[in-house]
Amino acid sequence: MLSNIRIVLVQTFHPGNIGASARAMKTMGLRDLVLVTPRQFPDPEASRLAAGAEDVVDNARVVGSLKEAVVDCVQVVGASARLRSLPLPHYDEPDEMARSLVANAVDDPVALVFGRERFGLTNDEIRCCSHQVSIPANPDYGVLNLAQAVQVLAHEVFTAWRRRPESDYRAARPNTDRAPTREQLDHFHDHLTHIMQRSGFITQPHARTEEQLQALFARAQPSRKELSLLRGLLSSLERGLEDG
């Protein structure tokens, strides 16, 4: 189960923070590290600050975009301050997030995403996520460095894993009952946007409408079977537009 939980670091500036994050991961049983366009990697400083977790650093994968990093994941949680302009589901308490992440990791890959040291994740990167989570901290000084944030949330995940109910040892759910991957959801949203434009519901790209619909389906959490049903509905509407 823990092997299905991925830590994604986006555009890390200081290579030492990669090593420190790897150390934080390994202490909590996590080993799947993906780096999105790090400024400098590999680097001796990353290995030095890993302090025993060099294997996590050595096995880290480097990719060119956040979308590529999470394409196979069924849940993607972005660690950030709460952004009300992007109405994705938000976990106010990290332990609630961790229980959900661990439950989904029984069958499929999931991801925790951390942004840049100075300003975190951009709005476009948050849109690649299915949820957001914030770490409660001193309101007068709630600043955590990258490795500290990884450690806090990795600990919550490890605790949720240790305390998971016996029912989580069940046999894998049927494929159709599982949550869709980000790639499957992206295809659905692209299809939905296409139909909205073809039907005249929107006459030009309208990011706000698309964001609100993305948030709606994120809250609904459709299964793969339900998403397939929606895709079938869209295909039927598309054929009707063509016949008309």
TrEMBL record:
GO terms for molecular function: RNA binding; tRNA (cytidine(32)/uridine(32)-2'-O)-methyltransferase activity. One of its GO terms (biological process) is tRNA nucleoside ribose methylation. This is tRNA (cytidine/uridine-2'-O-)-methyltransferase TrmJ. Homodimer. The gene is trmJ. Residues 5-154 form the tRNA/rRNA methyltransferase SpoU type domain. It is found in: Cytoplasm. Its EC number is 2.1.1.200.
